[in-house]
Amino acid sequence: MKPNIKALMIQGGWQGHEPAQTVEIMAAALRGDGMSVDVVDSLDPLADAERLGQYALISICWTMGEIAKEPLQGLLQAVKGGTGFAGWHGGAGDAFRAKTEYQFMVGGQWVAHPGGIIDYTVQITDRADPVMAGLDDFAMHSEQYYMHVDPGNHVLAATEFAGQHAPWIAGTVMPVAWKRHYGDGRVFYCSLGHVAADFTPPVVTIMRRGMHWAARHGNS
Hints:
Layout: E1 6-13, H1 19-32, E2 36-40, H2 49-52, E3 57-63, H3 69-80, E4 84-88, H4 89-93, H5 100-106, E5 108-112, E6 117-124, E7 138-143, E8 146-149, E9 154-160, E10 173-182, E11 185-190, H6 201-214
Parallel strand pairs: 1-2, 1-3, 3-4, 4-11
Antiparallel strand pairs: 5-8, 6-7, 6-9, 9-10, 10-11
């Protein structure tokens, strides 16, 4: 992990996903690696190109929120220009539902979590990738996200739906974590992290490594 880089983490939107608590967990993890992290509860900084220029990474946790034209364009332009983006669960994968260009950047959009809080398994699909190195498959008791996903994503972990809550999707293998690019920027997303209690050691490790990968001048 490379220290001396700066991240902007933005929290807000629907409070059921505990945005303040989950953002603080990941901010603390990044600070522990030596990264400088600013946490704010407003989307306004995204409209300030000069301010965004100081950050290597932007992370947003803003489930079901709305975003004005200027902050959205600021975010998209920053990532296209090389600033990294990373996020988790609905905070990033179900933010700004009406903004399809935002979804294009993230590489997916939440559409369902059949059964609500259930038991399922996360399967590591690319064990050679540094984000997943040394991790084994692990169990979750949380929402199992069904998403519409960009086929161009580099998938790092996945989950299989048993079909007990939606029989027509039995056997469907759904990406859980992926890497992608948007312009010159790196994008990392993980569908885990429904609430703070879901940030178990493997989840924090995946998110932390993915955020470092995404950050401008981060690991290869």
